[in-house]
Amino acid sequence: MYDPFKRSRTNARKRMQRATKTAFGKLLTGTLPATAPAKRKAAKTTTPLAKMVTPKGKARPAASPRPKPAPKPPSTARARTTRPRGASFRSGLHRCEFGERAFKLYIPAVAKQSEGALPLVVMLHGCSQSPDDFARGTGMNVLAEEFGFLVLYPAQERKTQMFRCWSWYKRSDQTRGAGEPALLASLVRDVIARQGADLSRVYIAGLSAGASAALIVADAYPDIFAAVGAHSGLPVGAAHDEATAVVAMQHGAPGLRHIVPMPTICFHGSADRVVNPRNGRFIAMRALDPYSDLRKTEKTGHVPGGRTYVRTSHRIGRGRSFAEHWVVEGAGHAWSGGNAAGSFTDPTGPDASREMVRFFLRHRTTAKKRASIG
User: Fold this and answer.
1) CB–CB of 199/235 below 8 Å?
2) What are the C-alpha distances in Å from 347 to residues 78, 85, 139, 306?
3) What single-letter DSSP state applies at residue 338?
4) SS3 state of residue 44
5) What does DSSP assign to residue 63?
6) Nearest in space to 105 (alpha carbons), one of 213, 164, 188, 200
7) Segment 252-282, tens digit of pLDDT
């Protein structure tokens, strides 16, 4: 039967596909201003006569003032990237019924001196990134030496997603027991068993698509994870396909209501043009759904020589916070306080890695919770 709308639907679908590719392409390039190319050193044009001694009676030309040194970047940005003796950064491949994924695992040198089981932090990279790049940019391995924890970096493959984005926007990858959440949960359980990690102190964080996936995995597996960190991501349920993902990234989406409590810390740049900063507010709002009677406090701070930020915390009395929302003024789509050696980093912002670790280590899962859900 002749379909008069067939051509219109085909053209509309092609336009949507182009728009989707453009949006995901932006996730790769980010919105930080491009670094100006280094100027070539001007060739010396000084003539031999100019090298001669200044004649008597004539003053030498005044020397040009030296430029003031640039302000020092935050600690993570200037943290060393060399691996200390005794530490290891191993590659591996995990296979299970839900598929397979390559990964890298950082075991700090302090693990050899530790008497108890170490915490585990899972880090999900953003689009176009790799575990090595993400480790450099976030400086999480350096903090692992300081605080004593393992760091797991699962790797998304190009054959799975052409831009190496985690599939946070697909219905099939948004629930417990299926897709990428189940695959990542299987990987984490395997690492915990092999390394003897502390079951009560397992955490997950990510950037952009990795942040969105981290929120989904933490929400689906609260028996594994004690807290979650999201940087420049979107709330759980913000999209269910590529078309709605584009809309959510551009305009923001409230996502789905959370039922099980999950301590959450999120960062977002106020000038992020890839993932609308409204999504950071929605993440914080959804994190508060299961809680009641939390006291809200707000603090404005400034990084010396860097950016201003606003931190909103929700806590019981004066105790630990269960939800934190950091807005970094003027920052784009990049990891705040990161190391410039990695991609998608903003060294001038507050140290997101250190703040996440500080937040994480104040939360644990209980044996009762792990048994009741698992």
Assistant:
1) no
2) 9, 26, 11, 8
3) -
4) coil
5) P
6) 188
7) 999 999 999 999 999 999 999 999 999 999 9
Instruction: Note the pLDDT tens digit of each residue in 141-200.
Output: 999 999 999 999 999 989 889 999 999 999 999 999 999 999 999 999 999 999 999 999
Token pair 């406090």 in the structure block, residue: 297
Q: Helix, strand or coil for residue 55?
A: coil
Residue 33 to residues 272, 340, 345, Cα–Cα distance (Å): 12, 13, 11
- Give, in degrees to the nearest 5, the angle at Cα 275 between 11 and 281: 130
State the Cα–Cα distance between residues 14 and 8, nearest whole angstrom: 10
> Which position has the token pair 């995995």?
217
In whole numbers, what is the pLDDT of the chain averaged over residues? 85
pTM: 0.81
Question: What is the arithmetic mean of pLDDT over 317-324?
Answer: 92
pLDDT mean over 310-337: 96
Beta strands 321-328 and 335-336 are unpaired
Distances (CA, A) of 14 to 11, 23, 162, 169: 5, 14, 18, 19
CA within 13 Å, CB half, 92: 17
In one-letter notation, the amino acid at residue 174 is: Q
CA-based nearest residue to 326, from 345, 307, 340, 313? 313
Cα torsion angle, 235, 241, 246, 250, sign = negative
Which of 178, 173, 176 is CA-nearest to residue 161?
173
Check residue 13 and give its pLDDT: 59
In terms of Cβ atoms closer than 10 Å to its own Cβ (0-12, 13-18, 19+), residue 102 is middle
Residue 1 pLDDT: 47
**Are 13 and 7 spatial neighbours (Cβ–Cβ below 8 Å)?**
no
Split at pLDDT 50, 70, 90, the class of 34 is very low
pLDDT at 14: 66
In whole angstroms, what is the distance from residue 265 CA to residue 274 CA?
Answer: 20
